[in-house]
Amino acid sequence: MLRSLFTALRNMSTETTIPKAAAAAAAVPAARAEKKSKKDAGNAFVLKTPKGTKDWADKDMIIREAIFGTLSSLFKRHGGVTIDTPVFELREILAGKYGEDSKLIYNLEDQGGELTSLRYDLTVPFARYVAMNGISQIKRYHIAKVYRRDQPAMTKGRMREFYQCDFDIAGNYDSMVPDAEILNVLVSGLLGLGIKDFKVKLNHRKILDGIFQVCGVKDEDVRKISSAVDKLDKSPWEVVKKEMVVDKHQPEEVADKIGEYVKLNGSIRDVLATLKSDELLSKNESASTGIEELSTMVEYLEALEVEQYISLDMSLARGLDYYTGVIYEAVTAQSAPPTDAAEKKKKVTKNGADVEDASEYVGVGSIAAGGRYDKLVGMFAPTTKSGKTQSIPCVGVSFGVERLFSLIKQRQGLEAKVRPTNTQVFIMSFGGGADWTGFLKERMQVANTLWSAGVECEYLYKAKANPRKQFEAAEKTGCPLAVILGKEEFPEGKIRVKVLGTGENDDGDLIEVKDLVDVVKAKLAESKVDGVDEVTRLIRSL
Amino acid sequence: MLRSLFTALRNMSTETTIPKAAAAAAAVPAARAEKKSKKDAGNAFVLKTPKGTKDWADKDMIIREAIFGTLSSLFKRHGGVTIDTPVFELREILAGKYGEDSKLIYNLEDQGGELTSLRYDLTVPFARYVAMNGISQIKRYHIAKVYRRDQPAMTKGRMREFYQCDFDIAGNYDSMVPDAEILNVLVSGLLGLGIKDFKVKLNHRKILDGIFQVCGVKDEDVRKISSAVDKLDKSPWEVVKKEMVVDKHQPEEVADKIGEYVKLNGSIRDVLATLKSDELLSKNESASTGIEELSTMVEYLEALEVEQYISLDMSLARGLDYYTGVIYEAVTAQSAPPTDAAEKKKKVTKNGADVEDASEYVGVGSIAAGGRYDKLVGMFAPTTKSGKTQSIPCVGVSFGVERLFSLIKQRQGLEAKVRPTNTQVFIMSFGGGADWTGFLKERMQVANTLWSAGVECEYLYKAKANPRKQFEAAEKTGCPLAVILGKEEFPEGKIRVKVLGTGENDDGDLIEVKDLVDVVKAKLAESKVDGVDEVTRLIRSL
């Protein structure tokens, strides 16, 4: 009876054979979903997620889990512990930490309680946590969502709700030792995710400040000149110079002097040599301190084998107010806007598409960034009787998961191999005739036995299911094994275990029901596929 | 030289030996942190998290990870895929889904864009996702935070920001097949977390509706009478009856009839037999359908070996509007308020403590709950030309992680064994004299070698560190191995590997530096301790 069913199956179209890679079919591509939601506008309201946010579908989640797993095991390798903080903070905690960007903070409505806002990054909540708990040293990682009311560019991974993966070292230590380790974490993290064509730009806030001083920028103008320099990754020097002279009222000669310095970049040792030979900078206290620190750091970077990934770049300024020492930013070739961005942008606007579409023609920006911030914890620390506040120096790095995700997802051959479920066994029943019950309860019992043994398995939620439907369902999950309850075989204590996708002539093995768990486990030892583990390997190697 | 250092160390106090369990010291107990934050009120503002929210400290995170890991591997065992949705939804998506509880929704401020609100649960976003993507069947799990502006009772795990772990099956299937599997998931989830003294209350909305009809409740009053019945887990019948008669204007005889039905509870088969023998109910269409469905289900529950955990309880009503079929709720002995709750509450208020403290004297409530909701997806589905909307039937369960966490954390002996880091090796250097460099760069090189080999290791961020400080730091991490660079040994290509906590007379093994990775891996094969894995085992067994 069972044999003849197998024969019948053999005569079916090849669609019903079960290739492992076929799992792809089950997923809903996000792009299609988005289109669909727009079409359904006949409904009472448009079904969508809020602007700048998105759903993560099943296959995307597997890739995301692989990225999180890669990064969190890296952080653990360096002795990191993890913490979590609320999605919203008291509004006063966030106030005065982000400079101009504070306008991008999401506020919660005042519903008659405390005033709160969604967190803008994980750094300020971390500093609040360190101060509130009186912690003197901690290495912590935190993987969580942050919120910015920015102009989104979805396909590039620029979102209003997005994940950050942060690793920070807080505590008083010998100079530049944790800083060098953070750069090792940054480089290892990107390499572990299969990102190879990246470059880490490094600079030091104290050197930058020294440069502005020796060029004649007044102290009160340093922050705004710094934020002009920060635009050099997107705009040519002429534009930035104009901003300094016209908008920010610097004499042209001051701007020109700055222009000479900020074009310096290259290997850390080369640029340090140039800076050291600069008489003006050598006499400047701030610059000298920065230069000395980087001279110490380069030795550590060599020992940690990351020196070669880093270039010292005087044009790197980083926007955030709270940095006080080294700053760094990793970029890839894809970080930059495409060379035809301006042209494409123009065309899109001409054809009447909305502004958001045009913003797709920007780069993804930095894929990981960070720096030293020695004063932030002190902003939350209690003031002592002598009027001093004690701060805990910190240094850290933040990986931009959405940007990394969009780079990784584009890779040739990855998405087709992602299997959204982890199902290993599909339980089927074969039978027929007027007295055929369908063995639904029996399939449940077998499933329960396998679940209890830790085996991922499924069966059709149908009292009587025909073989073709069951094979199709198994194929959808992409699972490697079928367990088959035959109408005559099962009541005799026998059950069939078949490796799927092995070709037409394999009827599987008929075994004793009592041996099922052992046989399944033995077969899975060869053929089990863990989705996240496999994707983690793929991401590293593709 | 190195030998004499070991001898010196032997003469140190026993504090410097490294017992593995000593890792506890590193963590900051949340309670202490909270107290501290109140003391620091001398600061510009009180350092705290918003009301009803909390930070998760390092050790708590390990327990949480173990809980999430246990539940997500359970969900995967049943063929679940995972998705993620934004923390906030368009406000109109949430409108009209939660009945009276809608007032507990957190709104985001109108900052000149769409009106949005924080999600109240994961069920409505799931239904929106299914409808928006035109999905006809999916088994999905989702572990994420939800938000309710409720009165918090923190130590019991009643929070304003809290996690839910949901598993739902959407699709048209044979009656009660997925429903029974969801109950299997519920029971397996609790057992997998070491919860043994629980009971699952089961009921069916159609039976309840039938009961209200045969007792003479008008159709328009059914929802409000149902929500009165929902209070029976907290209030005695007399109080609920009074609410029905006085507040909700039901004739006393109607209330009395309801009272007879809702006190029915016991094994599913017994209660079903009672209901079937009831003439009024047998003639009621709604009740008959429910009774028939449960009669089918009990067979499946038997096959899935969960029948014995479940009692059919006519007093279970569940608050949410969207349920249409079976409903269920798991409770433990600790779910109920303590018997002296009323007394304690009074005392606390008398002594002038705030209201929030009094609310600690409630139970944790249900620890997992769910039901069938066949109409919710249809509320988002597009209307067809014939004016029909097609809904996708769903059934699911939600685990209350904070409540489970607070039960698990209380367990004797668990917290002391939680190690917040996963560090396996501490790298030290021993030396002295005027020419002693401290081997900082050398420790970095060794660390980098071990990190590259996937080994979790740390070293002191200090150029010259004395042996005692290094052993103390190793002890804090609770790591099992030390790797020691001796001033004379290391330049000769030798390095020492010592198992920590093995007593005074063990100097470790002096090996070739080139063999380090192999030796460390071999030793860790015996002594490696993975924090989350160990806690997962402990949670299951304690």
UniProtKB/TrEMBL annotation, chains A, B:
SUPFAM superfamilies: Class II aaRS ABD-related (SSF52954), Class II aaRS and biotin synthetases (SSF55681). L-histidine binds at D121, L122, T123, R148, Q164, D168, R318, Y322, Y323. Residues 63-420 form the Aminoacyl-transfer RNA synthetases class-II family profile domain. It is an enzyme of class 6 (ligase). GO terms for cellular component: cytosol; mitochondrion. It catalyses: tRNA(His) + L-histidine + ATP = L-histidyl-tRNA(His) + AMP + diphosphate + H(+). One of its GO terms (molecular function) is sequence-specific mRNA binding. Keywords: Aminoacyl-tRNA synthetase, ATP-binding, Cytoplasm, Ligase, Nucleotide-binding, Protein biosynthesis. GO terms for biological process: histidyl-tRNA aminoacylation; mitochondrial translation. The keyword ATP-binding applies. Its EC number is 6.1.1.21. It holds the Pfam family tRNA-synt_His. It is found in: Cytoplasm. Belongs to the class-II aminoacyl-tRNA synthetase family. Catalyzes the aminoacylation of histidyl-tRNA in both the cytoplasm and the mitochondrion. PANTHER family: HISTIDINE--TRNA LIGASE, HISTIDYL-TRNA SYNTHETASE. This is Histidine--tRNA ligase, mitochondrial. It comes from Kuraishia capsulata CBS 1993.
